[in-house]
Amino acid sequence: MPNFSIGVDLGGTNLRIAAVEEQGSLLEKISLGTRVTLGRDHVINDMCDAVQHLTAKYKDLATLEGIGIGVPGIIDMRTGMIRESPNLPGWADSPVRRRLKNDWARGSSWITMRMSQPLARSGWERHATLMT
Known about the structure:
This protein has three helices and eight strands; from the N terminus they run βββαβββαβαβ. It has helices at about 40-60, 95-105, 115-125, and strands spanning about 5-10, 15-20, 25-35, 65-70, 75, 80-85, 110-115, 125-130.
């Protein structure tokens, strides 16, 4: 099996996490509800649990190349914080990149955070890459 990456789609309603081979073939997808009413720590824990599950399942078969996350909101490139998110109430000034690095970036060569497409098209595009 070639190397693989993990992609995360963090939305206000759904949380989708997928492991994908280098050639683009889907290995596995996990779909969860984003339970924002339980707070951001709960949502991040759900996300981290799913990423850790996929990493553990495929680590003996291939090398994890990186993890990418799509976030609905404005990301501060310098700090890796979500500054504002219309779909994630209570997430303003959340240190998401630091939390993700601590929880599930071990062994990954990079994490990429990118804003959702509607905000990106509005001119608020921010792209943050974290080297571990």
